[in-house]
Design goal:
InterPro entries: AAA+_ATPase, ABC_transporter-like_ATP-bd, ABC_transporter-like_CS, ABC_transporter_ATP-bind, P-loop_NTPase. GO terms for molecular function: ATP binding; ATP hydrolysis activity. This is Sulfate ABC transporter ATP-binding protein. The chain is α/β, with parallel strands linked by helices. The chain is built from 7 helices and 11 strands. The chain folds into 2 domains: 179 residues, P-loop containing nucleotide triphosphate hydrolases (Rossmann fold); 66 residues, no CATH class. The strands form 3 sheets. A 6-stranded mixed beta sheet has the order 7-8-9-5-10-11, with helices on both faces. It has a 3-stranded antiparallel beta sheet with strand order 4-3-6, with helices on one face. The chain is globular.
Length: 262
Amino acid sequence: MATTLAKAADGTETATHAARIAHVSKSFPGPAGQQLVLDDITLDVAPGEFVTLLGASGCGKSTLLNLVAGLDRPSAGDITTDGRPALMFQEHALFPWLTAGKNIELALKLRGVPKTERRDRAEELLELVRLKGAHRKRVHELSGGMRQRVAMARALAQESKLLLMDEPFAALDAITRDVLHDELTRIWRETQLSVLFVTHNVREAVRLAQRVVLLSSRPGRIAHEWTVDIEHPRRIEDTAVAELSVEITEQLRGEIRRHGQH
């Protein structure tokens, strides 16, 4: 995927976007022919920006994330990213026969990091996600929240400028999810990553994002966008989070009713 660059006054080149999605559509074969899942999506993610994609189940959120990740190709349109994105799923996808640290070291190995440096770098990443001392722990010894922390550390090991997250906290209990919201916000602000985060949870979208993008039901189109001007730290129960969540929920309900889904 190509990167669009801009030249600063000092002559250095910087990326103008972390991801650029231009008039992207995606169809899949179906019993009645090609089924249009995404229709003419245009969306930019700025460097360092946190964007959430929100919509009803089946609206094409995960499909769009897979296209940005390069796991599939659009039927029409173009996608460019600032380097290769890192991807984190709802399931942690850790290798159970490896320790937490070795799972991270494997990502470092695939990136070409010398063997002599991998252990120390894995330890640094575990400390970043607040799992210092967990290098030797096996996957079955970790709680669900700890596994997702390791998965986050493994994604960060790729040193991508763009992190794609597909409902990574959906399977966790409310308290663990709340803690990981804090951790993700802290890591995003410390690392200046760009994040494109898929969720169907409106309050999660508002709590995390600088911008919330609502997709209509199939075919997925951008139905509305909101800029989230709420200072950090944010809480799920904050009045400002709740008020914007109500507004977005009403729009989401309207989209679901309009397309006859329930």
